[in-house]
Specification:
By secondary structure, the chain is of the alpha+beta class. 51% of the residues lie in helices and 17% in strands. It is built from six helices and eight strands; from the N terminus they run H-H-H-E-E-E-E-E-E-E-E-H-H-H. It has a five-stranded mixed β-sheet, with helices on one face. Strands 2-1-8 form a three-stranded antiparallel β-sheet. Helix 1 packs across helix 5 (180-200) and helix 2 (16-38) packs parallel to helix 5. The longest helix is centred in the middle third of the chain and has 44 residues, at 128-171. The radius of gyration is 29 Å and the shape is elongated. It starts with a helix and ends in a 15-residue tail after the last helix.
């Protein structure tokens, strides 16, 4: 414990190496967990059965030309999910929930209302093989993207902790050695987030709260302030030696 206190108070560097190792570890952990979860998607029998029943779709100049004037529903696990309606340009009101492709529009319907839609553009040929290729790309790149995004988020989180802590320390006029705020923020960030990861394994993660990052940020800031309060340089009163009476 004393070694840790000495490091936080007078150590060399700013703890950036420890933060780099930790954020890389969390990024790789998230990538691995996500990949394990999605890697079997392309081999899913129900998904392959759904994709293989779809026709080849040809788009020219922003319009579906093949299959033309078609109104057909495709189901996934017996549940209608994809509506091919190339006999019309728009999605009809009060349509069932699902994915729609009209002659000019690709859209999602939820709760009986159009949630999101985009008009087609350009030329394209979409086949079942093309869709499976997109799915395999999704499985490959989504875990990588999530790992990189969380790596960046951790550094933003860390720098935010450093900035707020430094401002509070300045307002409180804490006298600290060079890099003490950075080292303390690095230690606090790693400690709080690592404990949260471990607790999540037992179902007690802060991530289940409505605003998990705010709770983590507040907890980390509190820990940093406790650390810097403890390692700050205290004023010492210098007592003048008593003069001997003659």
């Amino acid at each position: 414990m004393q070694k840790l206190i000495t490091y936080l108070k007078e150590g060399k560097g700013r703890g950036l190496r420890a933060m780099l190792i930790f954020s890389a570890f969390i990024g790789l952990l998230l990538w691995g967990m996500t990949y394990i979860y999605v890697r079997k998607i392309p081999a899913n029998a129900d998904l392959n059965a759904f994709v293989n029943q779809l026709p080849t779709i040809v788009i020219q100049n922003g319009e579906v030309v093949e299959p033309a004037r078609t109104n057909k529903t495709y189901a996934f696990k017996g549940q209608p999910i994809f509506y091919l309606q190339t006999d019309k340009d728009e999605v009809s009101r009060f349509s069932p929930d699902g994915i729609y492709l009209t002659r000019k529009l690709f859209a999602f319907v939820g709760g009986g209302q159009l949630q999101q839609g985009a008009y087609l553009s350009g030329n394209a040929v979409v086949t079942p093989a093309t869709l499976m290729k997109v799915i395999r790309s999704f499985v490959l790149w989504t875990p990588i993207a999530l790992g990189l995004v969380y790596f960046i988020i951790l550094w933003i989180f860390y720098l935010l902790v450093v900035g707020i802590s430094a401002l509070i320390a300045l307002i409180c006029r804490f006298k600290l050695n060079k890099g003490a705020i950075w080292r303390s923020a690095s230690f606090a960030t790693i400690a709080v987030l690592l404990i949260d990861v471990i607790m999540s394994l037992f179902g007690y993660s802060v991530g289940k709260n409505t605003y998990p990052m705010l709770v983590q940020l507040f907890t980390t800031l509190l820990l940093v302030l406790l650390i810097v309060y403890g390692i700050r340089e205290r004023k010492t009163e210098v007592k003048e030696p008593k003069k001997k009476k003659k």
